[in-house]
Structures are given as structure tokens and as C-alpha cells.
Amino acid sequence: KAGVTQTPRYLIKTRGQQVTLSCSPISGHRSVSWYQQTPGQGLQFLFEYFSETQRNKGNFPGRFSGRQFSNSRSEMNVSTLELGDSALYLCASSPNLAGREAFFGQGTRLTVV
Amino acid sequence: SQQGEEDPQALSIQEGENATMNCSYKTSINNLQWYRQNSGRGLVHLILIRSNEREKHSGRLRVTLDTSKKSSSLLITASRAADTASYFCATALTGANSKLTFGKGITLSVRP
Fold first, then answer.
1. What is the pLDDT of residues A20-78, one digit of tens each?
2. Reduced to 3 states, what is the DSSP secondary structure of residue A85?
3. For a disulfide at B104, which of A42, A89, B74, B94, Cβ 3.0-4.6 Å?
4. Which residues pair with A109 in a beta bridge?
5. Which residues of A touch B35 (CB under 8 A)?
6. A-chain residues within 8 Å CB-CB of B100?
7. Are A75 and A102 in contact (CB under 8 A)?
8. pLDDT of residue B49 exceeding 50
9. Contact status, residue B2 vs residue B93, Cβ threshold 8 Å
10. pLDDT digits (tens, 9 = 90+) for B16-36
């Protein structure tokens, strides 16, 4: 079974631009969660999608948004990028709702310059 | 604030020694999980312990959970250099729509 795939792996963007990150969960998994990881804040929960519906949301500004498609693939979008958005963005999938064992992708390293 | 707080923040041991890492949390949980992360990569699930369990084993890993003290410990026995990584505890609260909340992690260095 293929694991969780995140694309792209690395990204450099300029402040003010927007970015879209993609996550393909393990086949059959319906829950996809997104996390932001920075050295100072650790792993911060962004949001969780289950069957195309956002089920949970973390404390991030509205510039951070996401969606899930009918095939469970998910995208997250960050608009009007700020330097502080530089981070490793991790996607995790679970068979059912979050709170169970999560399978993580390798992450997308976003650098905002 | 983080639900889980790991202790210590960093740990350095000799190969063959045991490593003990602790995690404390604040509210009632459905389960607690431990993950490992090698530098700059994704997290790997190690073990899940439910709130009604007290101890669980998986290979060289032993996890305990004390819900009265709201704490958990992860013991890695006979450590190897390959165990060098960051370790995170994550808690899932009660409720159907619970999400995983991670601590800031423990950096474990195993010296050959």
C-alpha cells in the first residue's frame, strides 16, 4: 500500500504570494489532517477533513484554508504569505476520524522570502 | 497551549542504555500516542495506549499511562544509534471529532 504522498517536497515563495500544497492519503483513508511544524511552536494543528467536510480547525488565521476532494485527496492553501509561514507542513491520514493512529507524509518544506 | 508536554526536552545516552521519556497532559483523553521523527521528515507512529490501559509493549518499546497523574512514559530498552530522533507524545481527547494534539518533542541522541 502506498503511503501518504505530499507534493511538492520543497517550495520557495515570496512574501505576499499564495501557495497550494497537496496531500494524497493512504488508499481507503477518509480523514486527512494538516499540521504546521516550526522549531519554536512545534506541531500545530491546522485542520482536519473527513469525507470532504472540515471537522476540526486549529487557531490559524483565515489565510490558511483547505479542502478535500471526493477521492480523499486534500489541498491546503495559504494566501498572502508572511515570513512566519515558513515551516514544514505535514499531512496525516487516518482510516476514520482523527484521534486514531495517524500516518504522516514526508512533508512540504515551505520557505517564504 | 500544547496539551502534551514532554520531559526532558533533550536526552543523550550511550548505545545499549535505556531511554525514558515522559509526557504530561492537562485534560481527560481518549488515547495517547507516541511518534518518532527523524530529522526534517514525517512522523512515524510508534504506539497507542487507550485511557483504560495502563501499560503496553511493542518490541523494545514500553509505554505506561497513569490517568490519575495525567502522565505517560515511553521506555526504549537497549537503545541503538538508529533510535536517534525526536519523539512526540500526542493526545486524542474524548469525543467523536477529536484531533491529535502534539507536544513539542524530545530530542534523543544515542551515542555509538
1. 999 999 999 999 999 999 988 889 999 999 999 998 899 999 999 999 999 999 999 99
2. helix
3. A42
4. A10, A88
5. 104
6. 33, 45, 92, 98-99, 102
7. no
8. yes
9. no
10. 999 999 999 998 899 999 999
